[in-house]
Design a protein that fits this description.
The protein is of the alpha+beta class and 302 residues long. It contains nine helices and 14 strands.
Length: 302
């Protein structure tokens, strides 16, 4: 196998290890540090969006920076439209990405969720080049077994995956971006602690929607979110716990009457009539209207 594919597969495997331990939103410092390949340090990002490490002749990753200078977006066909670097189609970075497209080499795509935090998606492929609009078209293709260190005809395998599946897989990235962005913003607003019990381990925290996001009014905004540990997120979603528009926590009556071990006593019953822990900034407080909407359903479930 050529060195180019070896490095790409090593990058995907390293990223999988980081995602398994930290989640798929990774800190930029970690990506800048990168991984070791045959005694050489391979970073995965740099200030430029189209990044080629020294060891390779072609780009390894593309990045959309949060609040960056380029207007990358998902098109109507659900593919990512990625902007050229600058306005010269023949800039070396654009030329490198065009060569990646011709050879059908897999890339990593990093989408900035918040400053210093990136959603890692891999493998992705360039499936179109539009010099007149200064854009590349990008598709996700996690159906392709790029992680195995064996000779593989990538061009043939990419061609075997239908456009419809490419579009479906890429559309799932849009959903993940929305979900991860919501989680990061809500957890940051609550200083990475559960709004019910103050648990501060971020890996045990979720961003819970007050009005579910499968409803038209259930927006993925900070005002429609609560930072909750996994136990209290499940209890809130199951209407074991409710929160009034005045930020008072109520535990369902039948739960209060139960006799069980310390988790029930301290984890649920002990919250009854305590006050929700609120963000420092009032403009990030949960919406009273949303809380009222949810609490009315909690009382019906009680």
């Amino acid at each position: 196998m050529d060195i180019d594919l070896q490095v790409r597969i090593a990058a995907f495997n390293w990223l999988s290890e980081q995602v398994n331990s930290q989640g798929d939103v990774l800190p930029r410092k970690l990506l800048e540090s990168g991984f070791d390949f045959q005694g050489q340090r391979i970073p995965l990002v740099a200030p430029q969006g189209i990044f080629k490490p020294q060891i390779l002749d072609l780009p390894l990753s593309i990045t959309t920076a949060p609040k960056g200078p380029y207007d990358d977006y998902f098109g109507k066909d659900n593919f990512l439209i990625y902007r050229y670097r600058g306005t010269d189609p023949n800039h070396r970075d654009n030329g490198g990405l065009r060569k990646v497209f011709e050879l059908k080499r897999p890339l990593v795509y990093f989408h900035g969720i918040e400053p210093g935090k990136y959603l890692a998606t891999y493998p992705v492929y360039i499936i179109g080049d539009d010099p007149s609009n200064l854009t590349f078209k990008v598709a996700v293709d996690d159906a392709i077994p790029v992680y195995e260190p064996a000779e593989t005809n990538f061009a043939r395998q990419v061609a075997e995956v239908s456009d419809a599946r490419h579009a479906y897989l890429t559309s799932t990235v849009k959903i993940r971006l929305r979900q991860r962005s919501f989680r990061e913003k809500v957890l940051d607003a609550y200083k990475s602690q559960c709004a019910f019990c103050r648990l501060k381990h971020r890996e045990l925290l979720d961003a819970a929607h007050i009005i579910p996001d499968n409803l038209p009014e259930g927006k993925s905004t900070i005002e429609n979110g609560l930072s909750l540990c996994k136990l209290h997120h499940a209890a809130y979603d199951s209407f074991l716990i409710g929160v009034t528009p005045d930020y008072i926590i109520h535990v369902r009556e039948d739960i209060l009457e139960e006799e069980d071990g310390p988790v029930l006593q301290h984890g649920l019953k002990g919250l009854h009539r305590t006050k929700l822990i609120l963000p420092v900034s009032k403009d990030k407080y949960p919406s009273k209207d949303a809380l009222d909407w949810r609490y009315s359903r909690f009382t019906k479930a009680s």
